[in-house]
Amino acid sequence: MSEHKIENSITHLLEDWQRSQDGVKSKAFNALIVACYSQLHRMAAARAHAVGSVTLSPTEILHEAIISVGESSKSLKNSGHFLATMSLKMRSLLVDH
After folding, report:
1. Distance between CA 23 and CA 97 in Å, rounded?
2. Residues 6+ apart with CB under 8 A from 54
3. pTM check: above 0.70
């Protein structure tokens, strides 16, 4: 699948999630996370590595970010905005930790 098609798919999943009433528990949000999970996990690992000595695993960082963004950010515009928001949330979690 081309990069453009993946971005469009993520954007469509975002739109589905934004239309849902279930927030973080919606099927659309779950599908969005599944579609992006490996990329998000790599981002979490890179963030943890950049910080150095950290007690949180990349998986813990990612899951905390997923919960936080899922509960608060329904105004994301597209795949780039979603991924940037997730990355910043991961950074924030590491700074606060």
Report:
1. 26
2. 48, 94, 97
3. yes
